[in-house]
Amino acid sequence: MTAVPFFAPLIVEARKLNRSLAALLAVAAPSLIAIFTFFNLLRGKAPQPWDMWIVSGSGIWAFFMLPMSVTALTALVAHMEHGPKAWDHLRALPLPRWRLYAAKTICVLALVALMSAAVLVMTWGAVTLGAAIKPAVTPVGDFDLARYAAIFGKMYLAALLMIAIQMWVALRYASFVPALAVGIGGTFFSVVATSAKQGIYFPWQMPVNMLATEAWRANTALGLGFGLGVVALLAGLAHLSRREVL
Amino acid sequence: MTAAIETRDLTRRFKRHLAVDAVSMTVPDKAVYGFLGRNGAGKTTTLKMLLGLIRPTAGTARVGGVDVARDRIGAAAKVGALLEAHGFYGNLSGRENLDLTRSLLGLPKREIERVLEVVEMTEHARRRVSDYSLGMRQRLGLARTMLGAPPVLVLDEPTNGLDPDGIADMRRFLRALPERTGATVLLSSHLLGEIEQTATHVGILSHGKLVLEGELARLKADLAPEIALQTDDPARATALARARGFEVLAADDGLVARLKPGEDARTASAALTRALIGADIAVFAIGARSRSLEGIYREVSPPVPVSQAKT
């Protein structure tokens, strides 16, 4: 056997995902926000600023659709192996196990990044289309792409701790129930306590805190979400690689 | 010559349960080694330790001379494994499934055609695995173990769940494997007939201990033959045979009288026949036969007593 290319596990994961329903999920979640925004716009009578539409779309994404999408994506990626009981085969192969888990994590991170960008693009598209159909509600003000992209980028980085937790639970447990329970529970508290002060310490609420008006809240949530997220991702990879799958 | 697989005092404990107890086994190069034992005897746990999937509590395991605990990746590079759970992706074709593993192993594309030909699956390779029969999945699993032509193949219960035709088909493959691949095969099973028809060497695991190991033909030759007999009065026949120094056991098809080592089977059989007839016991059938693997197995691997089995 020759030396295994470093990126082989990543390419293999991408090929497996390509034949799964991950693409459908990646399109469905941003589309739902865009559809909601589109009909909400058509209900209006007076024009609203671009800021209102984009902040509204990013808010829905951050406190509900992002955690739900991460829950579904991590469960899907993990169950590609749990379902057919493929772990023994994969873990017996002559390559470092952490690369198998890292490949799955990178795929999830890439998909979430694509979905974040899709929410921004589709929200813009929905508002533009709605304004074309009903010119009376054409948004006012500038469409500040750089600012909006920065908001979505920070939300993405702040979500890292939540993604690391969901990823670990989904890969650790063969049943999808623990991963769904954690994801649904986290999203539930994110929705019912969106404006809670303690939200900056709660992984599922860290992304939505990027919209906080007080800078320290946004910065704290970003620092904790990203910093602890990196640590949790590495710790999760180390634990999964070393643990025995009985 | 380095043994293909060698373990020394390999032990694995799960909390209070000792699953594998100081197993020292040697699988010679190019052998088909039948790893026998009842369900729960510790076969799969031993195989998982050989593959580096679980760590031993004590002892060592070497594959192709490489210590699995010290260099898992080096040892894994020498093994192809077919485990009970195949781990195939049902939504992909057989070829695509093989290609995923080929990519992970960094092998050239032509490897897929080679292994598909070995297991005679080329014509089915484009079908989705979810449409495969269990026998076809087992063959595809065998093909996957052969990717990269590893010198050792570890096959865990490869005939489990197969119908009689599938079992016959798999036996044919297993017998031909060393010749086709040049590999050493470690084959675990609880089916005696399967091992007797395919293995050159056997190791018998009982309650986590390796109770017998050796070349199958030699093991059978070393044991004294036995006399199988059917009579109209098994109780009297048993008493009479015992009085003449035979060890007598009840078998499914009558009685079995064990000879002493070195005793001539034909002479003993004739003497026993004369004695039975002289005692007015009708003899339906009598004849010497060599010991079967089943006989060896039953002797060295007693079942768990009911009281212990419940604990």
TrEMBL record, chain A:
Residue ranges of the TM segments: 21-39, 59-80, 101-125, 145-169, 176-196, 216-240
Lineage: superkingdom: Bacteria
The protein's name in its UniProt record: ABC-2 type transport system permease protein
Sorted UniProt keywords: Membrane, Transmembrane, Transmembrane helix
Pfam families linked to this entry: ABC2_membrane_4
UniProt keyword Disulfide bond, yes or no: no
CDD domains for this protein: ABC-2_lan_permease-like
Lineage, broadest ranks: Bacteria, Pseudomonadati, Pseudomonadota, Alphaproteobacteria, Caulobacterales
Organism name: Brevundimonas basaltis
From TrEMBL, chain B:
Keywords assigned by UniProt, alphabetized: ATP-binding, Nucleotide-binding, Transport
Superkingdom of origin organism: Bacteria
Molecular-function annotations in GO: ATP binding; ATP hydrolysis activity
Record's keyword annotation contains Cell division: no
Any matching Pfam family: ABC_tran
Residue intervals of the ABC transporter domain: 5-232
InterPro entries recorded: AAA+_ATPase, ABC_transporter-like_ATP-bd, ABC_transporter-like_CS, P-loop_NTPase
Similarity field: Belongs to the ABC transporter superfamily.
Protein name in UniProt: ABC-2 type transport system ATP-binding protein
Organism in which the protein naturally occurs: Brevundimonas basaltis
